[in-house]
């Protein structure tokens, strides 16, 4: 049940106050020297009438307040069809994502790579129109989760329809500068995202992975991280397409041959991950590129579902109003006939 005008519930304490006032009010009386004439009258009726009248008055006030609050409950048979999938956004938060070399728009200076990633994903999720005219419908029906990763992945938000909370968590993320979490572990990030997507077996599942570098976390032994190819094979077996976005930009003109090769190798790994899972690989060098990429993903990944939004509600306002009017009429009738008092 929900209420269309919830603030009216703040005056609910008025109902018991009316009952208390009616019981405590001063009642009219007649002065008479001898009460023996009334001794044989049945006892207790006046007291019962007094309490019933007070309760009826409190009930009338309660019905009026509840009617003003507009209570209603949904018709469970009229849920609206909409579009929605289950999606995990795996976002790189390694130290290099703090580099302020990403052009979001020509009208402003370069921003950090992670800041551009946050802006683009927020547009994709919530919808809206950018100053350059790019329009996003938004994804209100999607269950979306957030995994961040540097040397190790962390689930910051499981699948949820509360996108306000999700985006608030994403906005608070900062690049990992150094220490034990320095590095880029794409393989385990994919595996972590797949684990979170298991909670949505009834929907189509998609993983979006954004990174500015190549997978560079290696170890030996039973706890060694997945390679990107191993994790991609898991995703392919689960029929989860992965959309990869490389946002590291082109190598600088003075970059060494080794640095150029590393960038090419990183892009090749992301492309192989997307190809193996039936997804698509993208390269983003600017805010315009990111917006175009998310528009493409938006068009590709929509699936009809039945939402939890209802087409029709049953309003209780008429019933409560009728109860209040009926209670008032009954009170007037009873006090005029059955509960009549003298004086």
TrEMBL record:
SUPFAM superfamilies from the UniProt entry: vWA-like
Transmembrane segments: 6-23, 48-69, 316-339
Top-level taxon: Bacteria
Keyword Oxidoreductase carried by entry: no
InterPro entries: Aerotolerance_reg_N, UPF0353/GerABKA_families, VWF_A, vWFA_dom_sf
Keyword set, alphabetical order: Cell membrane, Membrane, Transmembrane, Transmembrane helix
Residues covered by the VWFA domain: 86-297
SMART domains: VWA
Pfam family, one: VWA_2
Protein name: VWA domain-containing protein
Organism annotation: Limnoglobus roseus
């Amino acid at each position: 049940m929900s209420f269309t005008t919830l603030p009216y519930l703040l005056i609910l304490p008025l109902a018991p106050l009316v009952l208390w006032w009616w019981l405590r009010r001063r009642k009219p009386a007649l002065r008479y020297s001898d009460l023996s004439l009334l001794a044989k009258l049945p006892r207790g009726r006046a007291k019962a009438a007094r309490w019933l009248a007070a309760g009826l008055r409190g009930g009338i006030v309660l019905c009026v307040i509840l009617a003003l609050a507009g209570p209603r409950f949904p018709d469970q048979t009229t849920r609206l069809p909409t579009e929605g999938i289950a999606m995990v956004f795996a976002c790189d938060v390694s130290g290099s994502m703090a580099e302020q070399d990403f052009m979001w728009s020509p009208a402003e200076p370069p921003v950090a790579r992670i800041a551009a990633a946050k802006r683009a994903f927020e547009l994709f999720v919530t919808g809206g129109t950018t100053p350059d005219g790019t329009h996003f419908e938004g994804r209100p029906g999607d269950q979306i989760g957030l995994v961040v990763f540097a040397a190790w992945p962390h689930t910051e938000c499981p699948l949820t329809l509360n996108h306000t909370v999700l985006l608030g968590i994403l906005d608070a993320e900062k690049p990992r500068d150094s220490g034990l979490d320095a590095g880029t572990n794409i393989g385990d990030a994919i595996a972590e995202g797949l684990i979170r997507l298991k909670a949505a077996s009834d929907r189509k599942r998609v993983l979006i992975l954004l990174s500015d570098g190549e997978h560079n976390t290696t170890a030996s032994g039973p706890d060694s991280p997945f390679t990107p190819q191993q994790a991609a094979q898991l995703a392919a077996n689960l029929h989860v397409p992965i959309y990869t976005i490389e946002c590291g930009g082109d190598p600088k003109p003075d970059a060494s041959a080794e640095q150029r090769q590393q960038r090419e190798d990183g892009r090749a790994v992301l492309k192989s991950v997307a190809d193996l899972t039936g997804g698509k690989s993208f390269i983003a060098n600017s805010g315009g590129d990111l917006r175009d990429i998310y528009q493409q993903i938006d068009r590709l990944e929509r699936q009809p579902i039945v939402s939890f939004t209802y087409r029709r509600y049953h309003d209780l306002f008429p019933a409560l109003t009728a109860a209040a009017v009926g209670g008032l009429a009954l009170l007037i009738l009873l006090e005029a006939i059955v509960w009549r008092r003298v004086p």
